[in-house]
Design a protein that fits this description.
The complex is a heterodimer.
Chain A lengths: L2 H26 L11 H7 L4 H4 L14 H8 L7 H12 L5 E2 L12 H6 L4 H4 L17 H10 L6 H4 L2
Helix pairs in contact in A: 4-5
Chain B lengths: L3 H18 L7 E2 L15 E6 L8 E7 L2 E7 L12 H4 L1 H5 L9 E3 L8 E3 L2 H18 L4 E5 L5 H13 L4 E3 L6 H10 L7 E2 L6 E5 L10 H12 L8 E6 L4 H4 L3 E4 L5 H14 L6 H11 L4 H8 L3 H13 L3 E5 L1 H4 L4 H15 L8 E2 L14 H4 L7 H12 L5 E5 L4 H4 L6 H5 L4 E6 L11 E4 L8 E4 L8 E4 L12 H12 L1 H6 L5 H8 L6 H8 L1 E2 L34 E6 L13 H4 L8 E2 L3 E4 L1 H7 L6 E5 L4 E8 L7 E5 L34 E7 L6 E2 L9 H4 L1
Parallel strand pairs in B: 7-8, 7-15, 10-11, 10-13, 11-12, 15-16, 16-17, 21-26, 23-25
Antiparallel strand pairs in B: 2-3, 3-4, 5-6, 5-17, 9-14, 18-19, 19-20, 21-27, 22-28, 23-26, 24-25, 24-27
Classes of the chains: A mainly alpha, B alpha/beta.
Chain lengths: 167, 723
């Protein structure tokens, strides 16, 4: 086998692997463009704000909310007002317009997922949203599928009754 | 021509586009609030207590609000009037809130007067348009300002009353077409109290209803329906019995044990017949009253009464005996008996039965809680906050005459009682109003009355406004608080708010009389302000702890027999063979609900008709006139002529034709306009607002419309009805 042939064979053999890696990378790194380059890292890791400071409904509601513009301005009226991204927030506030964030995280259809049950059971946010504390704008690195839920529910010996989530 | 190769290419391209075109991810948006509503949690509904403003009953409501949007209205379980229940009209308040035809901003007249053509203007301009004439009138002739509203209760009434007094005008008129004037007159004569009684159904064992409508459109239908439910089975003691006398099988009649039809306008005579038997057979608890009345009642033996009313003598005697032996019991006169020319007599004769049975001021009977006590701290002004529930017809008539004479230079209109629609046309309200140089209306919708104004100022609906209320009956002393359950949807300001602002600008007396910055501040100052008692009361819906001492209800001089008023219906019985019985619609009430599709599509409980007017006729009478179910007829009275569809009611007296009120609008938006004609146009303009006052003739006619009904008295599944 010539050197050329060996390389070609290798390339053909590795092609699926390369494609898989590329796909994986593409998924993991999928960032959704946002109107403001909000940094989770700065707020969560650097300034040690709890996730629930902004996503305050997670222990009270089925849904995790986004903070209101008023909430952003609670701090940014006086903090980092010269930063270009903060200026954008101030602009929305002055115009009294909501920030049109793009949705990043989607659940599969036909499932009922109450945030408050998980949060009140003491499951850390990072269990399902790994790396969010190091991210810029929101990125979802874990794909939500039934397998992921079931694995955790089995491990923690909580219900795996179908009707608990599908009704 | 396409060859094979091109076809395959095109097909391939189409397939590709179809398969992969849909794979593109749709980017959804997440839009947070700029400023979230108070106590808002995403995905969790909030519930706010307030008061229902759809009719004057004053039920407490709890509104479910999600993401700042009102979603559902239910009864407030803590509220003494309705205890968690609510009627269809109350539920439909949501549609008024989201109505596409709601006034968005102030409107100034852009066409000829009364044309209904308006241009929107900003509030600043609207207020200057209002203040110009108002200041001029105030300076030159303050007495020439007219304020014509619906009855205003609570502090809204205080603001309006004080404004007019400080302005220097006595012309404040409140109009309510179903104000129980006759009942008040009767109560003053028989019980010595000119007020509405509390009827304690829950503890009554026997009820005699005289054209009673307490389950549908009476003074407080939800309250009475709930109490009625308690009487009929939801209590430990014996199940109460109900006998209904009246010319028509209404919903209340259909819920009775026994329906005994009587001729229209004779309810009082039936009551006298019953009183006669009670006195004759010594079945009364009030023996001294009985002794005094026995001579006068002698003329009203059951046999005599039968001749007059058509109710069999033995039925009258049996009802009298059962009523007397099953105490506590109630005798009640409804709108049908009270709203004729002899209404006061009918109500007094019925009230007499309560006196004879000795059930005044007792559980299961009639009592008079002192409503004025709720606002006693206002002294002489208390009557502004808890006004008498009278219709104000005499005042409206007088005001119309004065308008025609040019006595008013400016008129302020407000409320949903729509005088241009609900007053009899012979009164010529529209024409009289045109003599007033400047008319301003506070309204949520343009209707027959507000579209006559020169300036229309949009007001918030009851779900967006502050206020307070004292229900006419069933309140047990409770003042209900009204709070905005959502942020106002439109650029609106409430009438009290505008009056307060206007008073400030006028300065002097008006400014002193209305010292608040806003109506909200007025309410907060009255109830201890935020953070105090008021906070808790707002959460519960009002102040429900107190209860009023009953007012003593006995006349010092003793009761005399009411003077029999045999007021004949207008019209020659030969030319106009049928007596016209008009009744409030259970869905549209006096017509205010006609612009709400939910209420239009709610079937009438007796005729099952929707979206249109009808005239109820006995099938036998109809057969004599050659009329079939659903046929068009011309209804002619001495005063007017309208058309309607025939709906059979086997439970109506053969010489009576009945029509519901509420339809026949011409300027109340696309859902209300052109759905039949207004039966009020058949009425004469009498001394009293008499709905049972005229005779009519029917003649078959061809109508381009049909009457939609969800049921059919012969069975809705009959093939011929479905074809």
């Amino acid at each position: 086998m010539t050197r050329k042939q060996i390389l070609a064979t290798l390339a053909i053999a590795l092609l699926p692997l390369a494609l898989l890696l590329a796909a994986g990378y593409a998924f993991a790194a999928e960032t959704v463009p946002q109107p403001i380059a909000f940094s989770h890292k700065i707020h969560v890791t650097d300034y040690k704000l709890h996730c629930r400071f902004c996503h305050s409904s997670t222990n009270k509601s089925q849904y995790a909310n986004l903070p209101s513009v008023e909430k952003c301005m609670m701090c940014h009226r006086s903090i980092a007002t010269d930063k270009p991204e903060v200026k954008k927030v101030a602009h929305y506030w002055n115009e009294k317009k909501p920030i049109p964030w793009n949705k990043v995280i989607d659940l599969p259809n036909h499932v009922y997922f109450p945030h408050k049950k998980m949060v009140n059971a003491g499951i850390p946010c990072l269990t399902c949203h790994p790396g969010m504390d190091q991210a810029g704008t929101a990125v979802q690195r874990l794909e939500f599928g039934m397998g992921m839920c079931m694995e955790c529910h089995r491990k923690k010996k909580v219900t795996i009754d179908c009707w608990k989530c599908h009704y | 021509m396409l060859d094979r190769r091109q076809f395959l290419k095109l097909g391939g391209a189409t397939a590709f586009a179809t398969l992969f075109g849909g794979c593109e991810k749709v980017q959804h948006k997440l839009i947070p609030f700029v400023i979230p509503p108070e106590n808002h949690t995403l995905g969790e509904a909030l519930r706010y207590a307030s008061v229902c403003g759809q009719c004057p009953a004053g039920c407490g409501v709890v509104v479910r609000v999600s993401e700042g949007r009102a979603k559902k209205i239910e009864g407030n379980p803590l509220h003494p009037v309705n205890r968690g229940k609510l009627c269809g009209r109350g539920q439909a308040a949501l549609q008024a809130l989201y109505h596409p035809e709601r006034l968005q901003r102030p409107m100034k007249l852009s066409g000829a007067r009364h044309s209904g053509a308006y241009t929107p203007v900003p509030w600043e301009e609207a207020l200057s348009l209002l203040m110009g004439p108002l200041k001029k009138v105030n300076a030159e002739a303050p007495g020439s300002l007219l304020m014509l509203t619906e009855p205003m209760r609570g502090h809204a009434g205080l603001v309006a009353g004080r404004f007019m007094k400080a302005f220097g005008s006595k012309n404040r008129v409140a109009w309510d077409p179903f104000g129980p004037d006759a009942m008040l007159t009767a109560n003053a004569a028989v019980y010595g109290v000119r007020d509405l009684p509390e009827h304690d159904f829950a503890n009554a064992r026997y009820v005699l209803s005289f054209s009673g409508d307490f389950l549908e459109t009476g003074i407080s239908p939800v309250h009475y329906a709930r109490e009625y439910g308690r009487m009929r089975g939801d209590r430990e003691t014996v199940r109460g019995k109900v006998i209904h006398f009246g010319p028509r099988l209404s919903m209340t009649a259909a819920a009775a044990d026994l329906f005994l039809p009587c001729a229209p306008g004779t309810e009082g005579f039936v009551a006298l017949g019953i009183a006669h038997v009670m006195v004759r057979d010594r079945l009364t608890a009030a023996s001294s009253t009985a002794g005094r009345l026995s001579d006068d009642l002698g003329a009203w033996s059951p046999e005599e009464v039968e001749k007059k009313t058509g109710v069999h003598a033995h039925d009258i005697a049996a009802a009298a005996e059962e009523f007397a032996r099953n105490q506590p019991g109630l005798a009640i006169a409804g709108t049908g008996a009270a709203s004729g020319p002899g209404g006061a007599f009918h109500c007094a004769a019925v009230a007499l039965l309560n006196v004879l049975a000795g059930n005044v001021g007792k559980p299961g009977g009639v009592s008079f809680p002192n409503r004025g006590q709720a606002f006693a701290k206002y002294g002489a002004e208390a009557s502004l906050l808890a006004p008498s529930p009278e219709s104000g017809y005499a005042e409206v008539r007088a005001a119309v005459e004065k308008m025609r004479g040019g006595a008013f230079r400016m008129a302020i209109l407000s409320g949903v009682t729509n005088p241009a629609f609900t007053l009899p046309p012979p009164l010529k309200f529209n024409e009289a109003l045109s003599k007033v140089p400047f008319v301003v209306a506070f309204a949520s919708f343009l209707d027959e009355t507000t579209s006559l104004a020169d300036l229309v100022l949009p007001v918030p609906t009851g779900l967006e406004a502050w206020g307070d209320d004292l229900a006419p009956v069933g309140h047990a002393g409770a003042i209900t608080l009204c709070q905005p359950v959502v942020e106002p949807f439109r650029d609106t300001r409430s009438m009290p708010d505008v009056l307060i602002a206007a008073a400030k600008e006028l300065g002097g007396e008006p400014a002193k009389a209305l010292p608040w910055r806003s109506f909200r501040e007025c309410i907060e100052m009255a109830y201890g302000g935020p953070g105090g008692e008021m906070e808790k009361a707002l959460q519960r819906g009002g102040f429900f702890g107190e209860s009023f001492s009953a007012r003593s209800a006995s006349r010092s001089g003793g009761v005399s027999l009411p003077k029999a008023a045999d007021a004949p219906f207008v019209g020659d019985p030969k030319a106009f063979p049928l007596a016209l019985h008009l009744y409030p619609s259970i869905t549209l009430y006096d017509g205010r609900g006609a612009n709400l599709p939910w209420l239009q599509e709610m079937p009438d409980p007796i005729s099952t008709a929707v979206w249109r007017n009808w005239i109820e006729v006995n099938p036998k009478t109809a057969a004599g006139l050659g009329l079939a179910e659903g046929d068009g007829v011309t209804v002619t009275s001495p005063s007017g002529k309208i058309t309607a569809h025939v709906a059979f009611n086997p439970g109506i007296a053969p010489d009576v034709a009945a029509m519901p009120l509420g339809q026949g609008h011409t300027r109340y938006g696309k859902y209300a306009n052109g759905r039949g004609e207004n039966p009020i146009s058949l009425l004469p303009a009498g001394e009293t607002y008499a709905l049972q006052a005229t005779r009519v003739a029917l003649a078959k006619t061809k109508l381009s419309t049909t009457l939609a009904r969800t049921g059919h008295p012969e069975g809705q599944w009959k093939v011929k009805n479905m074809m």
